[in-house]
């Protein structure tokens, strides 16, 4: 006799423990009080979302060329549409926009190369990014050589200027910050006190004061007729300011490395720069990633302050556009657009830093 | 050690760029301008009708037209301007330090500014004054009926002070409601937090457009302060002072004689001696300023006369719809009056 053994098909879990209904029960309606708050929350969400969607999407006007194409019942995205090129490139001459595109495409390519782990020649690409690229970007954006017409910095603006300021600030602040942090931990009294004074001074004044000093006071100290380009004033102000913050982030990371690491390196006969460069900093920098990215994100947003010295960054150019008498009264649309652009960049930075942390995680995670 | 090198490099590069960016200071403003190939003009960083970038990224406005007129007089090219957007705080520093050569930024001509800041005002391109905007529903026709009103005002000392002065002088009570930006002021007015909104009349027009129902609000006839707005230059270079001053006068004279950007080429052969002198057909009136005889021709053909500039930027051809009022020529009942070219 042959018995045909047949397995009973696996049955699905009881319907009250899986699926959206169960999720709702477990998370939103697990008791009378929770149910009450859930319903209240949903109602508030409804009150908030319905007018927002009606204003921003359903009643909004999307196509057209002037304010007459807007009914004013909902958002007027026509305004953003008409000004989009200006919001991205500022007042950069329309015929030269390819130079900005090329610069940022190159930058994105280099950064992409560095970010993707599989690609080779990392060291050389990093060197090109840090040394070659700024020179390349200067010649391309400013011009004046190789037959490219000069584009004065007062025509730079929009997202392009925000990115230029942020990248220059980041690339400048990190190395200066590392050196300041090392200097602050140094045994040499002059180096140490210089670094302490520098850090405490720049951390003690608000960035807005620094920019005001650079734009209102600095020109008065200069000989007549000599003026520093305002963009360079902003570069110097932002870089020095951020390097002080960066120094303290780096110092925090350095302090987290046990002293034994440096002593062991010294026992192997390594000099100061080798100990720092090969043993201490690589471990410390890994732990500093959240702090460094935090500083970068705040720097990115701080660049909007250059608006007060008459530079049209992304927010500044939106505000300038709001004062065009042909487009009066669309402030909300303009600010929402600016906020959205900032969010995209800051959120991407934050996601990348999380990825980097996971990738470099080698046992220090707590 | 490395840090010091870094800083040295930073400082050196800044200095090199600084020196490279600016010409030598010994020459006159006109020579510097010609060498540079552009007029450095300080404008507002965004003021409806006076200076703002348009959709194509070109600066437009009544104040901007002064810059363009000077460029047309000097180079015969109204586009040869380097615009420097300035906020209210840094505008005088920028002019004093030579960052700009003309300040055409909605600046009120006052004794203090004219005599203590080392600058000279070259004329008045807009006679402004503080006024009141009320909702039409109130049924008010004069500011004298505003006793006890709640007044929305944008923070800014002179506006607030003028308001207090006016109500005290007329023995009336008021309740000031102060806002930071023009959007907030409009918002407060629209939400009914105040009965009346006060600001310079040039600004009232722009604020009114931003209302949901612009026709439901009206500007009262009373003007409670004098705000002559005009371009300014540094003291100590009379030739440059004359160029900026007469660039504006040329636009006013052109309006008086009926010369516009459209008919200026026909007018070149005009028998009228005033027009012949204006356009450089009879005598060379640019010589005294170091300019060519056809300096005014370039201004009129490229920028237009004062009426064209006014209507295009703030008047009836613009969304602002500001009446000429006292900004009309003296021949039309206003107070805009330019000395003759002869």
TrEMBL record, chain A:
A molecular function (GO) held by this record is: transmembrane transporter activity
Q: Which organism is it from?
A: Franzmannia pantelleriensis
Any transmembrane segments, and where?
33-53, 98-117, 124-144, 156-182, 194-221, 276-297, 304-322, 328-349
| Compartment(s) of residence | Cell inner membrane; Cell membrane
Entry GO CC: ATP-binding cassette (ABC) transporter complex
Q: Where is the ABC transmembrane type-1 domain?
A: 159-353
Q: Which GO terms describe its biological process?
A: amino acid transport
Topology relative to the membrane, per the entry? Answer: Multi-pass membrane protein
Q: What is this protein called?
A: Amino acid ABC transporter membrane protein 2, PAAT family
Top-level lineage group: Bacteria
UniProtKB/TrEMBL annotation, chain B:
- Which Gene3D superfamilies would you find in this protein's record? Periplasmic binding protein-like II
Q: Supply the source organism for this entry.
A: Franzmannia pantelleriensis
* PROSITE patterns (UniProt xref): SBP_BACTERIAL_3
Protein name per its UniProtKB record? Amino acid ABC transporter substrate-binding protein, PAAT family
Keywords for this protein: Signal, Transport
Q: Does the keyword Transport apply?
A: yes
- Give any single GO term for biological process: amino acid transport
Where do the Solute-binding protein family 3/N-terminal domain residues begin and end?
38-267
Quick one: signal sequence residues? 1-25
* InterPro entries associated with the record: Bact_solute-bind_prot3 (IPR051455), SBP_3_CS (IPR018313), Solute-binding_3/MltF_N (IPR001638)
- Please give the family membership noted in the entry: Belongs to the bacterial solute-binding protein 3 family.
């Amino acid at each position: 006799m042959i018995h045909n053994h047949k397995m009973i098909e696996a049955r699905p879990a009881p319907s009250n423990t899986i699926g959206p209904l169960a999720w709702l029960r477990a998370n939103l309606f697990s008791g009378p009080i929770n149910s009450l708050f859930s319903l209240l929350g949903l109602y508030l969400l409804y009150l908030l979302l319905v007018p927002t969607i009606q204003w921003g999407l359903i009643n909004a006007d999307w196509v057209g060329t002037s304010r007459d194409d807007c009914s004013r019942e909902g958002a007027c995205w026509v305004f953003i549409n008409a000004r989009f090129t200006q919001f991205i490139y500022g007042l950069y001459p329309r015929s030269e926009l390819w130079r900005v595109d090329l610069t940022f495409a190159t930058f994105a390519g280099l950064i992409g190369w560095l970010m993707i782990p599989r690609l080779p020649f990392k060291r050389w690409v990093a060197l090109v990014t840090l040394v070659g690229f700024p020179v390349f970007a200067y010649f391309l954006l400013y011009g004046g050589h190789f037959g490219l017409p000069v584009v004065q910095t007062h025509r730079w603006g929009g997202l392009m200027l925000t990115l230029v300021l942020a990248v220059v600030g980041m690339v400048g602040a990190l190395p200066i910050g590392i050196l300041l942090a090392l200097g602050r931990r140094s045994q040499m009294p002059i180096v140490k006190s210089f670094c302490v004074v520098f850090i405490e001074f720049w951390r003690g004044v608000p960035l807005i004061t620094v920019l005001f000093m650079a734009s209102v006071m600095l020109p008065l100290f200069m000989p007549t007729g000599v003026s520093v380009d305002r963009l360079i004033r902003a570069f110097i102000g932002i870089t020095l300011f951020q390097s002080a913050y960066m120094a303290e982030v780096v110092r925090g990371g350095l302090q987290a490395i046990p002293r034994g690491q440096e002593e062991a390196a010294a026992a192997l006969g390594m000099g100061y720069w080798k100990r720092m460069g090969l043993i201490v900093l690589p471990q410390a920098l890994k732990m500093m990633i959240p702090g460094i990215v935090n500083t970068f994100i705040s720097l990115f947003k701080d660049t909007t302050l250059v608006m007060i010295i008459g530079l049209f960054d992304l927010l500044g150019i939106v505000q300038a556009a709001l004062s065009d008498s042909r487009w009066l009264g669309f402030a909300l649309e303009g600010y929402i657009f600016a906020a959205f652009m900032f969010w995209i960049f800051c959120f991407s930075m934050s996601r990348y830093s999380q990825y980097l942390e996971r990738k470099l995680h080698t046992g220090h995670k707590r | 050690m490395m840090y010091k090198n870094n800083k040295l490099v930073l400082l050196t590069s800044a200095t090199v760029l600084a020196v490279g960016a600016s010409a030598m200071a010994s020459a006159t403003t006109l020579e510097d301008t010609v060498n540079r190939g552009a007029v450095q003009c300080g404008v507002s960083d965004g003021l409806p009708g006076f200076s703002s970038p348009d959709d194509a990224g070109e600066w437009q406005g009544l104040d901007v037209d002064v810059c363009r007129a000077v460029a047309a007089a000097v180079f015969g090219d109204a586009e040869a301007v380097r615009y420097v957007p300035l906020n209210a705080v840094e505008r005088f520093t920028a002019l004093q330090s030579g960052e700009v050569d003309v300040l055409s930024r909605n600046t009120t001509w006052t004794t203090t500014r004219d005599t203590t800041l080392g600058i000279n005002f070259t004329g008045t391109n807009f006679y402004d004054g503080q006024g009141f905007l009320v909702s039409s529903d109130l049924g008010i026709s004069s500011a004298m009926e505003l006793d006890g009103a709640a007044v929305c005002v944008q923070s800014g000392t002179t506006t607030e002070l003028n308001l207090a002065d006016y109500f005290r002088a007329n023995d009336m009570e008021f309740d000031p409601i102060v806002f930071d930006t023009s959007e907030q002021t409009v918002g407060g007015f629209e939400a009914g937090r105040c009965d009346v909104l006060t600001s310079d009349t040039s600004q009232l027009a722009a604020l009114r457009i931003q209302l949901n129902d612009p026709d439901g609000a009206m500007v009262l006839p009373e003007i409670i302060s004098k705000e002559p707005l005009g371009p300014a230059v540094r003291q100590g270079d009379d030739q440059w002072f004359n160029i900026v001053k007469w660039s504006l006068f040329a636009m006013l004279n052109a309006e008086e004689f009926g010369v516009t950007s459209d008919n200026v080429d026909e007018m070149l052969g005009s028998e009228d001696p005033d027009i012949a002198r204006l356009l450089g057909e009879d005598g060379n009136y640019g010589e005294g300023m170091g300019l060519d005889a056809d300096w005014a021709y370039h201004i009129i053909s490229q920028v237009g006369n004062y009426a064209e500039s006014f209507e295009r930027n703030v008047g009836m051809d613009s969304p602002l719809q500001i009446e000429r009022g006292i900004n009309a020529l003296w021949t039309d009942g206003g107070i805009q009056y330019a000395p003759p070219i002869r």
